[in-house]
Amino acid sequence: MKTILTLLGMCLVATVALGQQDPLYTQYINNPFVLNPAYAGITSNLNASLSYRKQWAGFEGSPTTINANGHLSLQDNTMGAGLMIVSDKIGVTSTHEVYGSYAYRISVGEAKELSFGLQGGIINFRTKNGSLTLQDPADPAFASETSESKPSIGVGVLLTADRFLIGLSVPRMLSTRTAVGKTDFTHYTQHVYAMGSAVFFLNERIRFKPSVLAKMVQGAPASFDVNAALILHEKYTAGIVTRNLSAYGVFMQALVKDSFRLGYAMEIPTGRSVGSRFSTHEITLGVSLNVLRFHNSVGITTF
Fold first, then answer.
1. Is 290 exposed, middle or buried (CB count within 10 Å of its CB: 0-12, 13-18, 19+)?
2. Distances (CA, A) of 225 to 26, 195, 208
């Protein structure tokens, strides 16, 4: 609907969510590859997934994210390669991304590996200002529709063991700016991610998996996700999550026929969050397959 209310609403979202230029994911802990290229190949097989996220469902112009990705273990599971395609839309703005990734792993001790990852690709930023009704049609900031593509590179590092994972990444290192008339716009500012997760074996059938993710971007306070999940029979995962104590959610994942995964997450914000009356939903479909002779892992992996 072409209303000034939509524009004002999206301006509010942009103001409050300065650190949210990167897409948000609730189920990142089931596939850290979406945040860290060093995860490519760590599952020692072919791992692919498709996810759809609708944030603040029912709020006009709210963020919608689609992510398709896959990564493959290579060279006797010592390196990995991956591909990721992302489409992220907020109001009249959209971002489309394509990345290729490469990771190399080395042993750093008994049952421990250090993985280094690189990714590179292209980001396209697009606005469709023609769908807005403006109080001032002559405003140069909204004078025309824009489409601009920029190169993007990212790096990451992961330390993994049988029962823990620690990672640091900057998946998009290049800040991007553009000028429309006399107005200078920042499309993107670097985000830094620090992730940690551990697994505790409660008994032969149940594992407890807590994790934390810190997100940092210049000009905004750090953001923290805290998760806690139970893994049952190595096939079913169920957990809870909070983001800055301003949104709470649940997530679950099921393994079907030892290769296919179905995941769902729902978040409910509090009165401290933008869109406090609207819930967020995220659905993920995935597959894990052994396709090369040295592949040796299927199903829901520990990390």
1. middle
2. 9, 9, 17
